[in-house]
Structure formats: structure tokens, C-alpha cells
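Subject — a protein and its fold
Fields — amino acid sequence, C-alpha cells
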Amino acid sequence: MSSRSQETRKKILEAARKLFAEKGYDGVSMEDIAQASGVRKSLIYYYFESKEVLFEEVWIGVIEELEKELFPEVENEKSIAGAIKKLIKKYVEFTLNKSELSKLIARERMNILENGESLSRAKGKYVSLLNKLEKIFEKGKQEDVLNDIEPSTATEIISTVDSIPRKSLIKSVEEFLLKVILKEKVEH
């Protein structure tokens, strides 16, 4: 793919990401994306055969960006309690600092999970993320650093932080999650 071609594709993806975050999958047409990206609608179909394919590409990119924020530092942490604390902190930071992306996740999470047959790549990517989170909490349970909370519940709670509408509450939610999930306060 030529650099001009890559640039056009990138412009389409960025416009689509912004619109999907603002209006949701159902609220955005290919015409909207064409106008926002400054390209003809037919050119979008040259790169992406359908709105679903374009949405999946956007979704997978967003989840990959979230994973890059969460897992490298968590995996380097020596203690599981420290890893869980870092995981919560990083998820909250992602929600606060990458609001367009976290808004897209919050808005479309259920659509992805419920429409798995038509959005199977997107669902697979999201389920993979949830499984990685749950494995970290399972290790915390095995090493007895979790309060009386199931790893699946901890995963569900942390993965919905981006749904909190008032950003001013999110930092206090971080403290709350640490108290609810971990047995004792972990200092760094």
C-alpha cells in the first residue's frame, strides 16, 4: 500500500473512531464518515467492504491501544497485589486521558458482546481483553490478596469504569476499587 493510500485509510479510521465514539455504531452512516474524513463514500468501500468491517477495525485498534496501556507495566510488576493496583490505576488513567476511546468502549461494549456473530472479530478481541484481566485477578485470588470478590466480578467492575459519566468521580472510584478488590492497601 502506498503512503498516500495508507494516509487515506488512516484518515477514514480516525474519522470513524471519532464519530462512533460520539454517536455510536447505529448513529453513524458511511456518508457521515465520508464527510468527516473528506473522502468519497465509494473510497471508504475500497478500503472497508462494509460499515461492520470498518467498525471492527476501529474497535480492535481501540482495544489494542487499551492493552498497550494496561499490560506492559502490569506484567513487569513483581507482586500480584502491585500488579492489580497498577492495573486499576492504568485503567482509570486510560479512561481519564483517552476519553474518546473510553467513550467508544463504554458506548459499544454491549453491542459487541450481544452481536457476536456479525462482529465476531471485535467480540473476540474484547473477550480476549476480559480474559487477560480475569487471569490477573485469578492469580490475586490464588495468592490471597483479593478481598472476598470473584475474579470475574472484579473483571466486570474494572471493565466498566469507562461508563462513569462524570470524570470528576473517576479518581475516587480508583480508591474505591482498590479498597473493594485488594485486601490491604498496597504502597509503592
Remarks:
- The mean pLDDT is 92.
- Residues 52-181 form a domain with the Tetracycline Repressor; domain 2 fold (CATH 1.10.357.10).
- Residues 51-76 form the longest helix (26 residues).
